[in-house]
Design goal:
Distance between the termini: 30 Å
Largest sheet: none
Order of helices and strands: HHHHHH
Strand content: under 5%
Shape: rod-shaped
Radius of gyration: 27 Å
Number of helices: 6
Oligomer: single chain
């Protein structure tokens, strides 16, 4: 296994561990420090930064896909819990406090109210909201890697070439470019 592959596996394992956590502080601390490190550009090694840029975009794309999968899983779980509670209320409304003078079926409003206040449903709903939040944060970071970091690299590269070309106006452009390339 090459060094880059080993590093990628370590990063992937750590990211999966952190994404799966419910500790919001650990999650935000990790993403903040990782995101800041990944956005940093060493202007004295632009060639290395250009090489690293594709890997960083792939890393954050993977994270966004993983977070999207977690969000879909949480949404499915929430809908499943909602359906089970709904079914249970329809089958045994009396155990949820339904009293009908005529023995009729519970109203839709009653069923919705029971579902909304059900502890399991509320927990599943909170998990879904957290998954949506993680997905939005990671997707924003991915977009930053794609657009902001790339734009910064382009600007710094233009600036470096401009400085080289203007460092010695008498020097032939082909010799300057040979030094750069």
């Amino acid at each position: 296994m090459k060094g880059g592959e080993k590093e990628e596996m370590i990063v992937t394992d750590k990211l999966e561990q952190v994404i799966g956590t419910d500790d919001e502080g650990a999650l935000s601390d990790y993403f903040k420090s990782t995101f800041e490190q990944d956005l940093f550009i060493n202007e004295y090694d632009l060639a290395g930064e250009w090489k690293k840029n594709g890997y960083l975009f792939a890393k954050w794309s993977y994270l966004a896909a993983y977070a999207e999968k977690e969000m879909a899983r949480a949404e499915l779980k929430m809908k499943e819990v909602k359906a089970l509670v709904h079914l249970d209320v329809r089958q045994d409304p009396e155990s949820y406090g339904w009293k009908s003078a005529r023995g009729g079926a519970p109203t839709d409003d009653f069923v919705r109210a029971v579902v909304r206040t059900d502890e399991k449903f509320q927990k599943a709903q909170m998990e879904y909201q957290e998954a949506v939040k993680k997905h939005q944060i990671i997707s924003s970071a991915k977009d930053s890697m794609s657009f902001q970091r790339k734009s910064a690299l382009e600007g710094l590269t233009r600036l470096a070439i401009f400085k080289l070309l203007n460092s010695n106006p008498q020097e032939d452009i082909s010799r300057v470019l040979d030094r750069v390339i």
